[in-house]
Hints:
With about 180 residues, the protein is an alpha+beta fold. It has helices at about 45-65, 150-175; strands spanning about 20, 25-30, 65-75, 85-95, 100-110, 115-130, 145. The strands form 2 sheets. It has a 5-stranded antiparallel sheet with strand order 2-4-5-6-3. It has one domain (about 20-175): Thiol Ester Dehydrase, Chain A. Helix content is about 25%, strand content about 35%. The structure holds coenzyme A. Coenzyme A binds near residues 1, 99 and 126.
Amino acid sequence: xxxxxxxxxxxxxxxxxxxxxxxxxxxxxxxxxxxxxxxxxxxxxxxxxxxxxxxxxxxxxxxxxxxxxxxxxxxxxxxxxxxxxxxxxxxxxxxxxxxxxxxxxxxxxxxxxxxxxxxxxxxxxxxxxxxxxxxxxxxxxxxxxxxxxxxxxxxxxxxxxxxxxxxxxxxxxxxx
Length: 176
Ligand SMILES: CC(C)(COP(=O)(O)OP(=O)(O)OC[C@H]1O[C@@H](n2cnc3c(N)ncnc32)[C@H](O)[C@@H]1OP(=O)(O)O)[C@@H](O)C(=O)NCCC(=O)NCCS
C-alpha cells in the first residue's frame, strides 16, 4: 500500500445495509499434482492462497470496493485434500466493524468419483475496504442479520476482534 496521510474517520452515513447473502461467494478448482506434497495432499500454503481469494470476493461483494487483507485471525486444517479431488471454498461476511469486515471461509474436498464432501478447513480473515481514489480506508455498509446462525457468527467475530486487539496491545506493551 502507498503511504497514506491520516484523515478524519470515514463516515458510514447513508450506506444502505445489506444482507449476508449479498456477500456469499463460492469457488472451486481441481487439485493437480503440482500443487501437492509428496503424499499427494494439497499444499497448506495453496489452501491459504485460495482462502484469501475466496474471502476477498465476499468482502468486495459486500463493500462494493477494493479490499486489502488486514489479518488472518484463525485457520484450522482439519482434513487433507487429495490430488484429483475438487477443492470448494464458501465465504461470507460475518461482521462489519467500520472500515473493516470479518469474513468466514469454509473449505471442502469433494471426491469426483463418489461425490463425498468433507469439511477440511475453517478460516476467519479481516479485510479493510479501500477507496479507489483516495486509497484510504472507507466505511462499509452495515449488515442485516436474519438467522440465529448469522447472529451467532456476528457475536463470535466480535470476540475474535476483541482477542486480536488485546494481543496487539499486549505485544505493543512488551516492546516498550
Ligand atoms: C489494513 C490497513 C489498510 C489499515 O490501515 P491503517 O492506517 O492502520 O488504518 P486505521 O488505523 O484507520 O484502521 C482502519 C481499519 O483497519 C483495521 N485494522 C488495522 N490493522 C488491522 C489488523 N492488523 N488486523 C485487523 N484489522 C486491522 C482497524 O481495526 C480499522 O477497522 P475499523 O475501521 O473497522 O475499526 C493498512 O495497515 C494496510 O494497508 N496494511 C497492508 C495490507 C496489505 O498489504 N495486505 C496484503 C495485500 S492485500
